[in-house]
């Protein structure tokens, strides 16, 4: 049981990071970037390519992340901004971001071929016993990295001027521009940060999945489920908690039902959770997480 | 406008609206430095659209809008908001998931590298509305309507703009809160601020402003002073305001 739990938390950290990536861009722009999984794939493919060409892993990973950020910004400038400029309430971005995802995926398949390529193991060869369970160093790294990134994002969001500006833009973009915020720049930064989150998820899962141009489909979908389960549409960190729930459920299903159960079980979990808590388990509208009104006596 | 004062806001031949329709047509008005001017009119007259056009929040606008020496007719909103004009909008539109002080500091976004000036502005807001000093760490969603209006006016002050735009600051407030807001506007006038106030309440406009423009059907139809209103002009206003 401990093994399922820890393995679930490890893979859930990856789902949570991709869920947070989706949630960060949604938080600021109210757009779901369906190319998020492909941004993760870009980091994996470029890192694998550069390592196989003889570059050090750190340098290759940094180049992969930068590439993801650049393509993430392009996804905003090409697939999102023109749609919002013509009609802010239009849903054209649904098709345009999906189209962008298809283009990036097929371009990757054209460049690197449709089959998987080697990815550097990073810490995948190290085993770490925890009680009666064993995690790989890579799994442990995933948990630590996701914790640091989620906490760091929340600290920046709540305690820095830029984070507060992001919150203001999320709440009322027109009013944010009326206090002097360039909301286009805020959106570009949000898309770059979310691409970086997706890219880091790619670096953490790459040693397990290897580098494949179609990697983004599966992980993009799980990231979306993580965001919806957690309630990341209201605050991005909720997507991380959603990812952990998803990861534990998927690993538990694999172990307790059959080895293919993680393909369908998360969808059942999603439907049940959305029926019980339509805005997600950890959303701000959940009474457990709603800010409390100060007592009248303190006024 | 006072003969001596130079216009801080000058609008001529302004037409603006949404979609294919102009809500305001061929508007001309001015506000002098240190002057307070009211735009009166019934619902749908186009008063708010004039303020939104000044802030660049209306995409479709023609004509000239000048603030100080700057032609802002084609400037994006965020550039106008950086010290030229600031708005306390209708409905307050605070960032409700943020504290009172965070809302105020966001108003001084373009001054963020000048900490001394931001501190001075923050102190001046707390001097104007002492109650906000006690509530500065409170979420703005937990404030009353009157307190939220104070934050909206404070946020506007924090950008230290050349012209302050207030859109119906008295709407949906208790008489006590209206009195506080009026006194704050009078204090701003003492400090030399230039105000363009959209109002439906004639008593508020005449207490605060030097001149009143009356709008109806998207056009300015009358210009008068509070003295004229008090000495019989009320019947003219009532004709438009109903």
Walk me through what this model shows.
Chain A: It is found in: Cell membrane. Chain A: Pfam families: BPD_transp_2. Chain A: This is Branched-chain amino acid ABC transporter permease. Chain A: Its main location: membrane. Chain A: Keywords: Amino-acid transport, Cell membrane, Membrane, Transmembrane, Transmembrane helix, Transport. Chain B: Belongs to the ABC transporter superfamily. Chain A contains eleven helices and two strands; from the N terminus they run H-H-H-H-E-E-H-H-H-H-H-H-H. A two-stranded antiparallel sheet of chain A has the order 1-2. Chain A has helices at 2-29, 36-52, 57-86, 92-112, 137-159, 161-171, 173-178, 183-209, 215-230, 237-256, 265-276, and strands spanning 127-130, 133-136. In chain A, helix 3 runs antiparallel to helix 4 (92-112). Chain A is 71% helix and 3% strand. Chain A is an all-alpha fold and 299 residues long. In chain A, 51% of the residues are buried. Chain A has one domain: ABC transporter involved in vitamin B12 uptake, BtuC. Chain B has 242 residues and is α/β, with parallel strands linked by helices. In chain B, helix 4 runs antiparallel to helix 6 (145-158) and helix 6 packs parallel to helix 7. Chain B has nine helices and ten strands. Chain B has helices spanning 47-54, 77-80, 100-107, 115-128, 130-134, 145-158, 175-190, 202-208, 226-241, and strands spanning 7-18, 21-32, 36-40, 60-67, 70-71, 85-88, 163-167, 195-199, 211-216, 219-224. Chain B has a domain at 7-93 and 163-241: P-loop containing nucleotide triphosphate hydrolases (Rossmann fold, 3-Layer(aba) Sandwich). In chain B, the strands form two sheets. Chain B has a six-stranded mixed sheet, with helices on both faces. A four-stranded antiparallel sheet of chain B has the order 2-1-4-5, with helices on one face.
């Amino acid at each position: 049981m401990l093994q399922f739990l820890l393995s679930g938390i490890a893979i859930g950290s990856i789902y949570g990071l991709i869920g947070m990536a989706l949630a960060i861009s949604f938080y600021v722009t109210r757009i779901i970037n369906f190319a998020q999984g492909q941004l993760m794939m870009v980091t994996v493919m470029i890192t694998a390519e550069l390592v196989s060409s003889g570059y050090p892993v750190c340098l290759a990973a940094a180049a992969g992340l930068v590439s993801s950020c650049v393509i993430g910004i392009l996804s905003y400038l090409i697939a999102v901004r023109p749609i919002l400029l013509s009609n802010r309430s239009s849903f054209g971005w649904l098709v345009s971001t999906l189209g962008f995802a298809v283009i990036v995926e097929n371009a990757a398949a054209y460049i690197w071929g449709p089959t998987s390529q080697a990815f550097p193991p990073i810490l995948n060869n190290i085993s770490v016993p925890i009680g009666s369970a064993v995690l790989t160093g890579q799994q442990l790294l995933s948990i630590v990295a996701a914790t640091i990134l989620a906490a760091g994002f929340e600290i920046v969001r709540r305690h820095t001027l830029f984070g507060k500006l992001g919150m203001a833009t999320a709440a009322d973009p027109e009013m944010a521009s009326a206090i002097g915020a360039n909301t286009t720049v805020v959106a570009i930064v949000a898309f770059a940060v979310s691409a970086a989150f997706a890219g880091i998820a790619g670096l953490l899962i790459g040693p397990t999945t290897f580098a494949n141009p179609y990697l983004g489909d599966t992980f993009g979908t799980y990231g979306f489920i993580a965001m919806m389960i957690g309630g990341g549409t209201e605050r991005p960190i909720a997507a991380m908690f959603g990812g952990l729930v998803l990861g534990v459920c998927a690993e538990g299903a694999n172990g307790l039902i059959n080895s293919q159960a993680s393909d369908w079980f998360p969808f059942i979990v999603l439907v049940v959770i959305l029926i019980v808590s339509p805005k997600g388990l950890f959303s701000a509208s959940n009474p457990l997480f709603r800010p409390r009104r100060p007592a009248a006596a303190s006024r | 406008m006072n003969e001596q004062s130079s216009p801080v806001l000058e609008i001529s031949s302004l037409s603006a609206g949404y979609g294919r329709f102009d809500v305001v047509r061929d508007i001309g008005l001015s506000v002098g430095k240190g002057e307070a001017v009211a735009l009166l009119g019934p619902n749908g007259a186009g008063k708010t659209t004039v303020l939104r056009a000044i802030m660049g929040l209306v995409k479709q606008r023609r004509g000239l809008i000048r603030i100080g020496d700057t032609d802002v007719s084609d400037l994006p909103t965020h550039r106008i908001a950086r010290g030229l004009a600031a708005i306390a909008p209708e409905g307050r539109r605070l960032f409700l998931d943020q504290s009172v002080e965070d809302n105020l500091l966001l108003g001084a976004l373009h001054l963020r590298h000048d900490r001394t000036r931001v501190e001075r502005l923050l102190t001046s807001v707390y001097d104007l509305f002492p109650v906000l000093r006690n509530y500065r760490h409170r979420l703005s969603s937990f404030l009353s309507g009157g307190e939220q209006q104070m934050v909206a006016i404070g946020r506007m002050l924090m950008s230290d703009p050349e012209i302050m735009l207030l859109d119906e600051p008295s709407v949906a407030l208790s008489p006590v809160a209206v009195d506080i807001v009026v006194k704050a506007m009078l204090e701003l006038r003492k400090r030399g601020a230039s105000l363009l106030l959209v109002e439906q309440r004639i008593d508020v406009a005449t207490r605060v402003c030097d001149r009143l423009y009356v709008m109806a059907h998207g056009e300015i139809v009358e210009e008068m002073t509070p003295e004229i209103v008090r000495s019989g002009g009320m019947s003219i206003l009532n004709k438009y305001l109903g």
